[in-house]
UniProtKB/TrEMBL annotation:
Gene3D superfamilies in UniProt: Electron Transport, Fmn-binding Protein, Chain A
Domain spans labelled Pyridoxamine 5'-phosphate oxidase N-terminal: 37-158
Entry protein name: Pyridoxamine 5'-phosphate oxidase family protein
UniProt source species: Paracoccus hibiscisoli
InterPro entries listed in its UniProt record: Pyridox_Oxase_FMN-dep, Pyridox_Oxase_N, Split_barrel_FMN-bd
Top-rank taxon: Bacteria
Amino acid sequence: MTDTRLKPEFLVRDEAALRALFPKVHDLALRKCLDRLDPHARDFIARAPFLCIGTQTPDGMADVSPRGDPPGFVTVLDDKTLLIPDRPGNNRLDSLSNLIANPVVGLLFLIPGFDETLRVNGRAALTRDPNLLRMMAVNDRAPRLAIAVTVDEVFLHCAKALRRSRLWDPAHHQDRAQMPTLTRIILDQTAAPPQDPAEMARLDAGLEQAYRDSMY
């Protein structure tokens, strides 16, 4: 039987030990990192309908949250600044609270059908400027605030991860029905009393209606 415990003697504890495991980084991989949004980065952002935003809690715990909207929902104000609208969510405000405590932020932009991704690292601030918020209104509804990111570094990431995962290949898409609905999962995780099938159907339908009503 395989011993699956983490053994201290195999843990990599410093950068020198880490780098000894890998070939030297290619010079081009270092030089591709820019400190501003060039035309290619701007074009990528304009096409992207989805990003992940990485933040840190005040006590140093990592957090990643998705953001999505029609392509071009992230506004590039200039070659050092971009603006992300904050759309209605569950009001936990994890990312926003984290950014108040620690403005360091990492962004990963994805475009359906593109195997490359765009990474942007920088520092964030939260703004309620009505002129900026109006620029990002959907259905005449402006966001309550936006995340303004000052860019420190930006670079395109190669296609290997998405090609390994076959993320965009319909032949490898999984059937959502093979897992319980989100409502069922949350009820199980919160130890809620069992629900009969009719009640579960009503709760699932209510969630879908809430999605439609509160998208913006």
